[in-house]
Design a protein that fits this description.
The complex is a heterodimer of chains A (482) and B (252).
Chain A (H helix, E strand, L loop, with lengths): L1 H11 L14 E3 L6 H10 L4 H15 L23 E3 L13 H9 L13 E7 L2 E5 L2 H5 L4 E4 H7 L1 H7 L10 H9 L2 E7 L8 E7 L9 E7 L4 E9 L6 E4 L2 E6 L4 E8 L11 E12 L5 E8 L4 E4 L2 E4 L5 E10 L4 E10 L5 E10 L4 E10 L7 E10 L5 E10 L5 E10 L2 H9 L4 H17 L4 H14 L6
Parallel strand pairs in A: 3-7, 6-8, 7-9, 8-11, 9-12, 10-13, 11-13, 12-14, 13-15, 13-16, 14-17, 15-18, 16-18, 17-19, 18-20, 19-21, 20-22, 21-23
Antiparallel strand pairs in A: 1-2, 3-4, 5-6
Helix pairs in contact in A: 1-11, 2-3, 3-8, 6-7, 10-11
Chain B lengths: L1 E10 L2 E11 L4 E5 L6 H9 L5 E9 L2 E2 L5 H6 L2 E4 L6 E5 H15 L7 H15 L9 E2 L5 H15 L3 E5 L7 H14 L5 E6 L12 E6 L2 E6 L2 H9 L1 H11 L1
Parallel strand pairs in B: 3-10, 3-11, 6-9, 9-10
Antiparallel strand pairs in B: 1-2, 1-4, 4-5, 7-8, 11-12
Classes of the chains: A alpha/beta (482), B alpha/beta (252).
Chain lengths: 482, 252
Amino acid sequence: MAKDQDKILTDITTGEYKYGFYSDIEMDQIPKGLNEDTIRTISEKKKEPGWLLEFRLKAYHHWQTMSMPHWANLEIPPIDFQDIIYYAAPKQKAALDSSGDIDPELKKTFDKLGIPLEEQKHLAGFAVDAVMDSVSVKTTFRETLAELGIIFCSFSEAVKGYPDLIKRYMGTVVPYTDNFFASLNSAVFSDGSFCYIPKGVRCPIELSTYFRINAAHTGQFERTLLVADEESYVSYLEGCTAPMRDENQLHAAVVEIITENKAEVKYSTVQNWYPGDKNGKGGIFNFVTKRGLCRGENSKISWTQIETGSAITWKYPSCILRGDNSKGEFYSVAVTNNHQQADTGTKMIHIGKNTRSTIVSKGISAGRGQNSYRGLVKVLKNAVNARNFSQCDSLLLGDKCGAHTFPYIEVDNQTAIVEHEATASKIGEDQIFYCNQRGISTEDAIGLIVNGYAREVINKLPMEFAVEAQKLLQISLEGSVG
Amino acid sequence: MLVINNLSVSIDGKNILKGINLEVKPGQIHAIMGPNGSGKSTLAAVIAGRDFAEVTEGTVTYFGRNLLEMAAEDRAKEGIFLGFQYPVEIPGVSMVNFMKTAVNEQRKHKGLEPLSASGFLKMMREKKEMVEIDSKLTNRSVNEGFSGGEKKKNEIFQMAMLEPTLAILDETDSGLDIDALRIVANGVNKLKRNDNSTIVITHYQRLLEYIIPDVVHVLYDGRIVKTAGKELALELEKKGYEWIKKEIENLN
């Protein structure tokens, strides 16, 4: 760990968006545009059962009645939904057979991203589902996990292999009517990950999904569904990158988590989509609906997110605390530099008795970045003894950026205790001079201070990710001083 | 090693230092005394490279190089250390990480490999013992929640870690009880070699009972008005600064 920190410091001096390359892979893609036929084509390509096509069409018809939400503190340029390719899949030269070999070109891409798809080479303790554009290309360690009864596969395979589980859980946390982007996703989603942890099983390794947008003009619409049955535990990681392009690309995902009695899910994201260039050209629009349902008693869902990428982020990982004594947590670091905009936060809905939630949000704004925290803490009538603690901190670098906090608190039960703390600070000149006087350059000093500021959240990440996140924070803020 | 020649400095158009002359040779300890507002801390900050004052006249050279052209971090890497009068808190940044970065920056500057984790921790342990700093302090964030005395001891600890060629201690004794004062002074004395130098800036003579200066200067109204041996400090303690003020007025 200590050695890695040294490396981070040297890395900062060379920090640019490292994942901006494009892989020239032959694609199977459908024409731009969205209509009923598009949806039927996607469903057909995936050889889906009728019930799923029906779900998609219902979502599509509902979506047609909706309009883009404009309540967020974001300036979103108009999006032409007919100008997007809704399905693009890398053509695998060697078809996926029973041995599970994948196309060498694809393997090369993921190697370059630091995500080796061969199990023997992979970081010990990680299983990966690799998703490129619209499809999952490889899931590692499946057999090992299967011995424990853990199901970890692409969403498409789950639809075929475990239709009962999918039918039972899909759309129960984020219904297809939920919001504009969730409805769109429900209509056109092409793949994603599915994970089921059976009763009493603690998943021994970290499960992760790595999302890569590669093809131009495409949108990525994936769904992740995680089900933790009674007394089970899983730690899940999500990473994402995209090539550097002048166009904006849309990423509208849905993540649903369900925890039964005494189950626990820890969901971590290091979001590093291409943020656009210094002048705000290009970058990913990240409009994501993530929600967990603590269905069982004494269950727990914990979200940790490090948001450094995307031109625009619109994302509120939330917890519905339905089971008595259930717990929800949200730890977030969101960075906006240059022209990036983020409106992110969480919702904690207390329904059960003795439910607890913790929110720690750390916003960092630099350049002309605009960073908003938006959070709702809602305590319903029957949520006796609900507790919430929220802490929202903002750190500003420079004087052209902005930090905003929009906390909403709705309490319908008098026994609830809801606390909210907020701070806003600037990196002080005296702090920088103190570091300078010890031989530390201004750029390194800011790196140290920012990582110190975000440490409480970074510490919640699994270690390999924590190191990655520290590096990212420094690279994202490169050139933001002076 | 340090030669200050006719240095004048203003802050927001106000003249703070008015023609300072000072030469510090290797192995020397200089004490700069003077009443509040005489320009002591400004002088320390200008030598360390804080970018807040305008040098209107004069030169500062350090081993023959123009110090005023060097960035603060380069001066630090060349061995200039400032013990702050008000050490700054940096929440969330651990002392270990902070010191490790500082020590390795200095090593890089000297063309040395960074210290290994174990080598660094060993060094921390030795220096902690040397300056008698509570090991709990170094497990915390930089100066965060430290008492006044702990902050000052932490400055001396950092000085021990960085082994400066020229250390400037700005009012390091202020706010210290007698035990802390002794610890701080012991630390400074232990770090003394015949090739490094120290400038002790202080208001009171008390610290100079523990750190024996070779030269004592009195800074008054932006000028060094008196320079003598260590006995000057005792005289000042006895007669107070009023005596100096009168002497100057008589001269005028």
